[in-house]
């Protein structure tokens, strides 16, 4: 948590206003109750209905034993229930732990165990996968299912007639646990408070020009920090705007939705922007995208040629967003010149976001020189949840978060992302911690040693390659064998390596570590050859 003098300053400057998520929805239901908050297919939920259903669900969850401070793993697709569940938990002061729909037994089991979750809320079948099977790894958590519950508790059965609820949480308390992209063996959890998160949401809504007439299309998973807060679905609710949910991100689903719902703003990762641009450019009859004002692109570096096509092909403005679930979010501004919008990843939200760019010895570098990005501020965490040892490495003694990103600063404080120092693969915006995948692969009998690295990819930006040293006397493991093995271990599909290369030994750096750089260039050389 923030030291007292910082907390006092953030309050004095009007960033932390003492609002909880429950306050936000209550205020919106009072001022804009009749307006539509969420559109999910044919279903429309008004602000008043959302508030009413969230309270009834809070009562049902309370009856089931969910209490203030308890953790609840939430894994839901882009559906209206998501909002009812999270606002019910916010009302109780129970902490949602935001899992992604792509997560499988390995991740869900870990989240439930590590957070000692009392409940696991998921869906029945989504994208061909039966999420109810994950109940097997939920441990002590009660499995609650939206849709057909099978043998488990049905979410529908929990909406009680309104009843007295105990006092809710305080604004300075942790509201939820968000997931870190991570670079270590096990995913880290990010504790965000009502005060700090809602500040970033309000400021983001302002920067992105949201008004009650805005229509925000949620394309990426709603629980991802970008979709949730930059300004995302919570920003839209803050602005009394309308959230439209896309069940899938493909052009065939999304383009008609934009036309019919008169969407004004949406957020995507670079490969999706690329896909939409190609789809629209190739259509003889252009879809009606006249309502779309702003396409936000973030999560991974946007290539210059793609950035240049957004305006001409989609007829809307581009905004680059460089953010992280740990806090700091940078935006290009709506009135910035094209030069800045197309070639930088924006500047921080807050005048009190402290940005340091340093060399390998933590010494500041000159503007224009690439260095490690460190940051501290009114909505950037000071430590991961229950991860004392890791926190000593991930934060400086004076509380700066080491983002692991390599950036350079341009005039006006605009940042350009130049690379990464952390052992992470950014596969089209989906983050993969190399060590997490390595630890799974090391349990395979034919694997003696392994290093997982990013390899460049024209579409996704990066893909994953596992370099493997085979165990003596064992047949060298192949890509299908290792992929099948990881799937069986219940690892999310996006973390499963795209390539495998078997080596006799690893190149070693001066300090005795496996040289990932040499592995990457060896792969680039063999691919060219
Ligand atoms: C290059 N790298 C980027 C960008 C994120 C808004 C937008 C994105 C996220 C997000 C988010 C990048 N160019 N434009 O939470 O609120 C890489 C960096 C960063 C990491 C964070 C938000 N935008 N990145 O992507 O927690 O490496 O958040 O440190 O998933 O993504 O990942 P994540």
TrEMBL record:
Pfam families: AMP-binding, AMP-binding_C. InterPro entries: AMP-bd_C (IPR025110), AMP-bd_C_sf (IPR045851), AMP-binding_CS (IPR020845), AMP-dep_synth/lig_dom (IPR000873), ATP-dep_AMP-bd_enzyme (IPR050237), DHB_AMP_lig (IPR011963). One of its GO terms (molecular function) is ligase activity. Pathway: Siderophore biosynthesis. Residues 26-385 form the AMP-dependent synthetase/ligase domain. The keyword NADP does not apply. Keywords: Ligase. This is 2,3-dihydroxybenzoate-AMP ligase. It comes from Paractinoplanes durhamensis. The lineage of its organism: Bacteria, Bacillati, Actinomycetota, Actinomycetes, Micromonosporales.
């Amino acid at each position: 948590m923030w030291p007292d003098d910082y907390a006092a300053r953030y309050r004095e400057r009007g960033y932390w206003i003492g609002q909880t998520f429950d306050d936000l929805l209550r205020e919106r239901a009072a001022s804009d109750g009749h307006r539509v908050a969420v559109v999910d297919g044919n279903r429309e939920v008004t602000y008043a209905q959302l508030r009413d259903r969230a309270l009834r669900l809070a009562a049902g969850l309370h009856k089931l034993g969910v209490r203030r401070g308890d953790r609840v793993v939430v894994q839901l697709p882009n559906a209206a229930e998501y909002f009812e569940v999270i606002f019910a938990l916010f009302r109780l002061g129970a902490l949602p732990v935001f899992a992604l729909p792509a997560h499988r037994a390995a991740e869900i089991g870990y989240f439930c165990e590590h957070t000692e979750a009392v409940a696991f809320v998921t869906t029945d079948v989504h994208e061909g996968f039966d999420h109810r099977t994950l109940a097997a790894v939920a441990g002590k958590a009660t499995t609650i299912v939206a849709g057909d519950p099978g043998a488990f508790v049905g979410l529908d059965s929990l909406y009680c007639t309104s009843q007295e609820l105990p006092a809710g949480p305080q604004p300075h308390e942790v509201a939820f646990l968000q997931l870190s992209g991570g670079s270590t063996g096990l995913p880290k959890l990010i504790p965000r408070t009502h005060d700090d998160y809602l500040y970033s949401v309000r400021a983001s809504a302002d920067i992105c020009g949201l008004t009650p007439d805005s229509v925000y299309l949620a394309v990426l998973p709603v629980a991802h920090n970008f979709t949730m807060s930059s300004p995302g679905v919570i920003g839209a609710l803050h602005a009394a705007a309308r959230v439209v949910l896309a069940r899938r991100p493909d052009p065939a689903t999304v383009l008609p939705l934009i036309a019919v719902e008169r969407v004004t703003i949406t957020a995507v990762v670079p490969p999706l922007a690329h896909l939409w641009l190609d789809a629209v450019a190739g259509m003889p009859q252009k879809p009606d995208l006249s309502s779309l004002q702003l396409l936000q692109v973030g999560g991974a570096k946007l290539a210059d040629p793609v950035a240049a096509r957004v305006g001409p092909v989609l007829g809307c403005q581009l905004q680059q967003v460089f953010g992280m679930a740990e806090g700091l979010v940078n935006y290009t501004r709506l009135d910035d010149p094209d030069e800045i919008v197309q070639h930088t990843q924006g500047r921080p939200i807050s005048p009190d976001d402290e940005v340091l760019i340093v060399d390998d010895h933590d010494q500041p570098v000159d503007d224009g020189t690439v260095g490690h990005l460190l940051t501290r501020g009114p909505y950037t965490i000071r430590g991961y949840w229950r991860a004392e040892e890791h926190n000593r490495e991930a934060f400086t003694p004076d509380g700066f978060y080491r983002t692991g990103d390599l950036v350079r600063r341009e005039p006006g404080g605009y940042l350009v992302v130049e690379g990464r120092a952390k052992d992470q693969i950014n596969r089209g915006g989906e983050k993969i911690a190399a060590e997490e995948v390595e630890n799974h692969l090391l349990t395979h009998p034919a694997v003696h040693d392994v290093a997982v690295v990013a390899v460049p990819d024209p579409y996704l930006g990066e893909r994953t390659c596992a370099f493997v040293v085979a165990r003596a006397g064992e047949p060298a493991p192949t890509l299908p064998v290792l992929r099948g093995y990881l799937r069986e271990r219940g690892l999310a599909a996006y973390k499963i390596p795209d390539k495998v290369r078997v080596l006799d030994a690893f190149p070693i750096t001066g300090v005795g570590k496996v040289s990932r750089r040499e592995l990457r260039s060896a792969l680039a050389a063999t691919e060219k050859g």
